[in-house]
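Hi C.,

You asked whether I'd gotten around to modeling the 74-residue construct. I have! Everything is below, sequence then structure, no commentary in between.
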Amino acid sequence: KSGTTLETIHEIDNKNKIDKPEWAIEVSYEGSYELSSKVLEDISGLDLHFSQLGTWVSSSLVTLGDLGFEFLND
């Protein structure tokens, strides 16, 4: 996991007054995927590696989409 970023947003309304602040948080993860030199020499094997990685990423995004975020109910 990399560093968490927290943002506070202050917008100005049409009367030049500051609205209530809004917040955002960003959490990100970093990783590496090791490929053997054999796979890099014959790139036809990359399909297998990246299709498995793509399946994992898709599954993770679907799981994230299923989470209930109360602040999004407005």
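If it helps when you're writing up: The radius of gyration is 21 Å.

Thanks,
B.
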